[in-house]
Design goal:
Order of helices and strands: EEHEHHEHEHEHHHEHEHEHEHEHEHEEEH
Number of strands: 15
CATH class of the largest domain: Alpha Beta
Distance between the termini: 35 Å
Radius of gyration: 24 Å
Low-confidence stretches: 1-36
Strand content: 5-15%
Shape: elongated
CATH architecture of the largest domain: 3-Layer(aba) Sandwich
Number of domains: 2
Structural class: alpha/beta
CATH topology of the largest domain: Rossmann fold
Largest sheet: 7 strands, parallel
């Protein structure tokens, strides 16, 4: 599947008792041939009156899990059709669009990252088959590099992501990763859990003592250091609020394509850098929290890495495609980067083997100063995030089809008005 991995929520995932959810969509849905399902039919109209025609929404992926009240309102406003998993496979999905199987639907709704992407990348091959009636595509997730949002916009379709719902979870994870780069947590954790099967346990004791003795000399408090944020949207601003406050006391700087207002800069006590190179040269720790580039080219390359001061720390909670991982490994080996933490990877679910070795580095049989924290695209993965994905996706569609402004659009500059 062409789509990047992003915090899937399988149906079997346990949910805390305090989290409101429904075990099935609300209201119940009867089956519809051949495989799709529709929302419940509206109550009968009084004699002599005709039921208004409701816009149709194509729901791709799993049923709603967390927001039954909103879904009840949603399914009363719209005729919801949910294609089966088999119909969502690319070949069958294309066939269905060509056959006009689901009619002139007005919106596409994808509430989960783990399902609904079976058809792969939304490129010209799919987008050109969409009926002209489609006005909005609302999806879970912050990233949208799996969809050609420019082409969608040129067809008159507003694409809305759900990054706002994931911002707090990603920011929290980013904070943990920043701390890891200052305190060398991968080394400390690996040494403490080093498996030693020898009868005396001497290697495990040596690993523990080695870390205890040596980690201090390379560890620092974050306070007073410059945190450079590449991208200053919702996630970047939340990271700034968490690490720039008195609790951590970091000095915040940022680079973004569009400079934020003086009011925003003042509220976060941040310094704007007009170029990426300027930010790289000023920062003690860099956090990449920008959207994936539309051209698919990395932002962090051998050239940009050499613009950094020796010993800089690096964190990526954005997209793996933004980083030349071999160049990053080179920078770690040379000391330009002293420590790194990556939640996202260029070839997910595969992780760069050089970075894996650096995360679990051995020195003379003992875990040495592993300088890389690697996680599995977990930053946005909380129950609260998925509650927000569902809710925000529905609210975006409800707003657009009511003729109101979308809540979280990403491609308005490309959208042509529809008559």
């Amino acid at each position: 599947m062409a789509e990047p991995t992003n915090t899937p929520m399988p149906p079997s995932t346990p949910v805390p008792a305090s989290t409101p959810r429904s075990s099935s969509p609300a209201p119940p849905v009867p089956s519809l041939s051949p495989n799709a399902i529709r929302s419940a039919i509206s109550p009968p109209m009084p004699p002599g009156r005709t039921a208004p025609v409701r816009p149709t929404v194509l729901h791709i992926g799993d049923p709603i899990m967390y927001n039954p009240a909103t879904y009840a309102e949603f399914s009363q406003m719209f005729e919801v059709i949910r294609p089966s998993a088999a119909e969502r496979e690319r070949i069958e999905f294309k066939r269905a669009l060509k056959e006009h199987r689901w009619g002139d639907f007005s919106a596409i709704f994808r509430p989960f990252w783990g399902t609904g992407g079976e058809m792969g990348r939304w490129d010209a091959e799919l987008i050109d088959l969409l009926p002209d009636s489609v006005k909005v595509f609302a999806s879970a997730g912050a990233g949208f590099d799996w969809a050609d949002t420019k082409l969608l916009g040129e067809k008159g379709i507003i694409y809305c992501n759900s990054g706002l719902a994931a911002a707090e979870a990603v920011a929290d994870f980013g904070v943990a990763m920043v701390i890891s780069t200052f305190r060398h947590l991968p080394w400390c954790m690996t040494a403490a859990t080093f498996a030693d099967l020898s009868p005396t346990g001497s290697l495990a004791r040596a690993a523990f003592q080695n870390c205890h003795d040596r980690a201090t000399a390379v560890s620092h408090n974050p306070r007073g250091h410059v945190l450079g944020l590449i991208g200053f949207g919702n996630i970047g601003q939340q990271i700034a609020a968490k690490l720039g406050n008195p609790a951590f006391g970091m000095r915040i700087a940022y680079y973004d394509i569009v400079r934020k207002s003086a009011e925003i800069e003042s509220s976060f006590r941040t310094t704007f850098h007009p170029t990426l190179e300027s930010l790289l040269q000023a920062s003690d720790c860099l956090v990449l929290c920008a959207p994936a580039s539309t051209d698919g080219k990395p932002l962090i390359t051998a050239s940009t890495l050499h613009s950094m001061r020796p010993g800089t720390r690096f964190v990526n909670v954005a997209r793996g495609s933004l980083v030349d991982e071999d160049a990053l490994a080179d920078a770690l080996e040379s000391g330009i980067i002293s420590a790194a933490a990556l939640d996202v990877h260029a070839n997910e679910p595969k992780v760069n083997p050089r970075l894996v070795r650096m995360a679990t580095q051995l020195e003379e049989g003992n875990p040495g100063p592993g300088r890389v924290m690697l996680t599995c695209h977990n930053a946005g993965g909380t129950v609260e995030t998925h509650i927000g994905f569902e809710e925000l996706s529905m609210r975006n569609i409800m707003a657009v089809l009511r003729g109101q402004p979308p809540i979280t659009p990403v491609n308005l500059e490309f959208v042509r008005g529809k008559s």
